[in-house]
Amino acid sequence: MATRARPLSPHLQVYRPQLTSLLSIIHRATGVALSAAALGLVWGVVALATGQQAFATFTDLANGFIGRLVCAGFVFCLMYHWLNGLRHLAWDTGWGLEIKRAYATGWVVVVLAPTLTALLLWLLWA
Amino acid sequence: MSAFRTPLKIVHGLGSAREGANHWWMQRVTAMALAPLSVWFLWFAIANKGGDYAALSSAVGQPLNAVLLLAFIWALFHHAYLGLQVVIEDYVHPRALEITLMVLIRFGAILAVLSSSIAILRLVFIAVERT
Asked: Quick one: which of A61, A71, B86, B129 has the fewest CB in 10 Å?
């Protein structure tokens, strides 16, 4: 059979981005980011058990400008991954797989993730 | 194709990866654990914010907090390992690099879990000694 260079599907360059596919890839990206956040948590716990000085180094870094920026990013990733993860678990029960409902719950994630992030950062830092 | 499979192989339902739906299922089980545990963790972080070193270290040393934090970290790294494994399988194409990365993240996850477990246990023992 002739192997012409046929378009593959979904071919990212020509495939129109959809809410569902965007939320799906962001779920992966936030998951990878949260793996890094988990290492940060281990660092904090180990520093806490090591002693006052080690923990002060950790909190100074976490409360610095860059530290807070990274923390804010991690909180957003957690909110997003948590909300969208519930969406995935609902799908696993067979609920919400219809196009209409998949979009509706998707928009709920889009609205709630930044809202909860702002609320949590306020609770953590204010 | 199924003619090549023995009835025993079919009834085991483990497929070519020899683990059946285990990866998929454990990803869900750890997710179900992490959904409430991460809420607890955020609540714990907010409740103990701004506390000094002694207050926070004795809070983590409380048995209930220590158990929940251990459960959170264990489930977190199990879930993260399973997720990263899929990402590597999907995007890292050189086979040698793919396998190397998968072994490395497994080692990393185990070391992370072990070191945080020992750290939390140490805080528990320190808290017990203080009483």
From this structure: B129
Tell me, what's the pLDDT at B131?
Answer: 78
Place of tokens 């020899």: B18
Residue A18's nearest CA partner among A7, A29, A26 is A26
pLDDT at A9: 64
What number is the ipTM of this complex? 0.89
d(CA B50, CA B48): 6
The whole domain housing B66 covers 2-130
pTM score, whole prediction: 0.90
Tell me how many domains chain B contains.
1
Report yes or no: B42 at the A interface, CB cutoff 8 Å: yes
Confidence (pLDDT) at B41? 98
List the one residue out of A1, A26, A15, A32 whose CA is nearest residue A80: A26
Whether A86 shows a pLDDT value over 70: the answer reads yes
The CATH number of whichever domain residue B75 belongs to comes to 1.20.1300.10
Chain B, residues 51-90, CB within 8 A of chain A, namely 53, 56-57, 60, 69, 73, 76-77, 80, 83-84, 87
A22 CB near a chain B CB, below 8 Å?
no
Q: What are the φ and ψ backbone dihedral angles of B49, each rounded to 5 degrees?
A: -70, 150
Q: Is A109 exposed, middle or buried (0-12, 13-18, 19+ CB in 10 A)?
A: buried
